[in-house]
Amino acid sequence: MVFVEEFNQEPSEAINLALYIRKKYLEYDKNTNKRIISPIKLQKSLYFLFAYWGQYIRKNKENQDSVEVNYSNYNEFLFNDRIEAWTYGPVIPNVFTAEKVGLLEDMKSVENYLEDDFVKKEFIDNLLKQLFEIDDFGLVRISHEDECWKKYYIESDEKHDREIPKEEIIDEYSSK
């Protein structure tokens, strides 16, 4: 299986971020039963982190005089993995598949993930706290309001796997 072979190499940025999100959810103080994050909450967290990160970086690059950090070295894309329009909102398919076949369980620890990037870590940690407060289908409802999802989710399609261009996601969030 080609897909599984891809995971024998270095995990993608979205996979690393998914592992980090899973870890943070287990540490989340309101997760008293220490449940693993649901696939829906994981997918929507990845999507909203991607969208808001892109907006954050773009806005700070446009207004360099008003920020204390030099954002010119930061990429608007939090990760390069494909984002698709599925029934319950945007999905990162390789993370979905990795989780489904148990590869996220086998991945190496992410203890040092973001350790050397305070700006990105602080941004992600702050947004995750907010995302964890919203129930799964609340996140689905919010993602269904996005024009970029509406544009690429075609209900009559037999398979819902149309790619949502990353640039369009960031454009939409930057215009909000």
Molecular structure report:
- By secondary structure, this protein is mostly helical.
- Helices cover 54% and strands 5% of the residues.
- It contains nine helices and three strands; from the N terminus they run H-H-H-E-E-H-H-H-H-H-E-H.
- It has a three-stranded antiparallel beta sheet.
- The longest helix has 24 residues, at 39-62.
- The chain is globular, with a radius of gyration of 16 Å.
- 28% of the residues are buried.
SS-derived structural category: mainly alpha
Approximate helicity band: 40-55%
- Rg over CA atoms, rounded to whole Å, is 16 Å
Global morphology: globular
Order of helices and strands: HHHEEHHHHHEH
Question: Could you give the order of strands across the largest sheet?
Answer: 2-1-3
Unreliable stretches: 1-5
What is the beta-strand fraction?
under 5%
Summarize the biggest pleated sheet.
3 strands, antiparallel
Residue-averaged pLDDT: 90
With helices defined by DSSP (H or I, 4 residues minimum), what is the helix count? 9
